[in-house]
Amino acid sequence: MARTVEGSSDAKGLKVALIVARWHEDVTSRLMDAALDALVKHGASPDDLTVVRVPGSWELPLAAAKLAAARRHDALVALGCLIRGETPHFDVLAAETAAGLGRVGASSGIPVVFGVLTCETLEQALSRAGGAAGNKGWDAALAAIEMVSLYRRLG
């Protein structure tokens, strides 16, 4: 039978930075609060958590790259909200934000979790930030915890 390797949900001792976009702050603040709550409830010390605020989702990869280069955190969680408008601007931002965060994670060896909502409407975003669809900030924090543990197990 194949050996399975997976991470745990124990955040004790982890140093995690949340990078949070201010654009659509009514949504992103809910994502941030849930992510912080998840980290603490899974054992992280509030003293080991850092919140970095950036203007919008476009700036998330830029801040992530600086944080990753400093090597002070075990994981980075990028939280933002993009809502489709009437122009292709949404498509460009969503694609470049995702690609940029992926590049930071791949090049740094530090888990960088994508917690950016890409929604059609504000109502959809609010639903994913503590409404009927749960809170994706919480989910992103749990993914960060698990990925740190998995990276450590993989060596």
Count of structural domains: 1
Question: Level of helix content?
Answer: 40-55%
Number of helices: 5
Distance between the amino and carboxyl termini? 22 Å
CATH class: Alpha Beta
Query: In percent, how much strand structure appears in the residues?
Result: 15-25%
Furnish the topology, listing elements before pairings.
Elements: E1 16-21, H1 25-41, E2 49-54, H2 60-70, E3 75-83, H3 89-108, E4 112-119, H4 122-128, E5 129-131, E6 134-135, H5 136-154
Parallel strand pairs: 1-2, 1-3, 3-4
Antiparallel strand pairs: 5-6
Descriptors for this entry?
single chain, about 160 residues, Rossmann fold, four-stranded parallel β-sheet, 6 strands, about 20% strand
Walkthrough of the structure:
Helix 1 crosses helix 5 and helix 2 (60-70) runs parallel beside helix 3 (89-108). This protein has helices at 25-41, 60-70, 89-108, 122-128, 136-154, and strands at residues 16-21, 49-54, 75-83, 112-119, 129-131, 134-135. It has 155 residues and is an alpha/beta fold. Helices cover 48% and strands 22% of the residues. The two termini are 22 Å apart. The protein has a single domain, classed as Lumazine/riboflavin synthase (Rossmann fold), CATH 3.40.50.960.
Summarize the structure.
It is built from five helices and six strands, in the order βαβαβαβαββα. It has helices at residues 25-41, 60-70, 89-108, 122-128, 136-154, and strands at residues 16-21, 49-54, 75-83, 112-119, 129-131, 134-135.
